[in-house]
Amino acid sequence: MNAAKPRSDALVFFGATGDLAYKKIFPALQAMARRGHLTFPVIGVAKSGWTLQQFLERAKQSVTEHGGLDSEAFARLASRLQYIDGDYNDIETFKGLKTLLGSSQLPTHYLAIPPSMFPAVVQRLGESSCATKARVVLEKPFGRDLESARELNRILHTVFSEDCIYRIDHYLGKEPVQNILYFRFANAFLEPIWNRLYVENVQITMAESFGVKGRGKFYEETGVIRDVIQNHLLQIVSYLAMEAPSSAYGEAIRDEQAKVLRTVRPMTIENMVRGQFRGYKSEPGVAQDSYMATYAALRMYVDSWRWHGVPFYVRAGKSLKMTCTEVIVELNVPPQVVFREAKPSIGNTIRFRLNPQVVIAIGARKKRPGEGMVGEPVELVVTEWEEQGKGGPMDAYERLLGDAMAGDPTLFARQDVVEAAWSIVDPVIHGPSPLYEYEPGSWGPAEADRLVEEVGGWNTPQ
Predict the structure, then answer these.
(1) Model pLDDT, residue 49
(2) d(Cα 458, Cα 205) in Å, to the nearest integer?
(3) What residues are annotated to the active site?
(4) Which residues have CB under 8 Å from 348's CB, separation 6+?
(5) Is cis: bond before 356, omega within 30 of 0?
(6) How many of the other CB atoms lie within 10 Å of CB of 323?
(7) DSSP 284-300
(8) What is the pLDDT of residues 438-447, one digit of tens each?
(9) Whole-angstrom Cα distance, residue 331 to residue 364?
(10) How far apart are the first and last CA of the chain?
(11) 56-109, pLDDT tens digit by residue?
């Protein structure tokens, strides 16, 4: 079990007038208020020249647009909200914050700001004594490569100890992602086949039907590998490939994540295909000669006893045919000595669809009605729901904010896990590699098909 930790008694979030706060943080806080979990003051910090009244109006607009206004819950949230307007480089801002914190002894500071501003805010928190007995929550990306991630961690550790640092990867807070972990280790029938003897390949697809949505400047600095593969998708790889943790204790789970990511073979250009959708260079903020990838497909190998020789295929991209995140674990075809019509492309699978629907399903074969012993594929659906459906599971940000306030690190990325993930992609994010153009609405460049020729092609979401 997780060791009990004292709950934070105040939440401070920097970047309080920004996009992330508007889309995610205010709706999560209203949801916490609705459940009766918002029992602490919430202080927003930003440099916008706003008054508290303007800040409250922004919060109300946010929850109205994202999830719907709950008048009773919002009233409870509004009664907790405070605001301080000031420069993050000015120590006076942090002295004012210290005054607003008042008698709070264990605040949580949420840095919903660009990573370039982390060092200044962390330093000022330390200088103003706002970091005493405090926790800090950081948004990804945690660096731009392995070297910068290590430097960021060095800066953080000058003020906060590792057990007080909570690195948010909101994907880990999603109910369907946690379900991968639970389904694996709560069901005895999976363990005997969850290895190189029975699994032929694993495929993970994260497709988005939209482009960069006016965020061209951001994407030019990030690209698809830094944006979603190094963090979201490698976290999923770790949940699929890790050994059973000794318990559900947060550090036990993160220990196994770190162990398995250290066994993933560093990427090479030969095992990667990069793409860019036609029209990307016309986006505002994008260079006319941009070489940034909006699509990447990787062939990975986990050099562990369990997974030796089993390819893990990971692909992600924008402006693809549909929006969907799906994992398909394809099992080996049984010996073709009884029924000879089965083919690898329609064999046994375990499928986890993470969005927009949430599905856990087992692919099998049954006899087709009629004469002859001829089969057809069928899926046995274990669970299915609409991710955003009414009455659905807790939103990722509500869950993660609550966990950070409670001092539960299970769903947050630990330093060694972050650095292990960077070590995998670091060899291919700096050097030159081919870039192939693909049509919006397609499944990416055709050149990516060569990576999966040996297993009969991509298991494309339907």
Answers:
(1) 94
(2) 9
(3) 232
(4) 330, 331, 333, 362, 363, 364, 365
(5) yes
(6) 14
(7) TT--TT----SEEEEEE
(8) 999 999 999 9
(9) 10
(10) 40
(11) 999 999 999 998 999 999 999 999 999 999 999 999 999 999 999 999 999 999
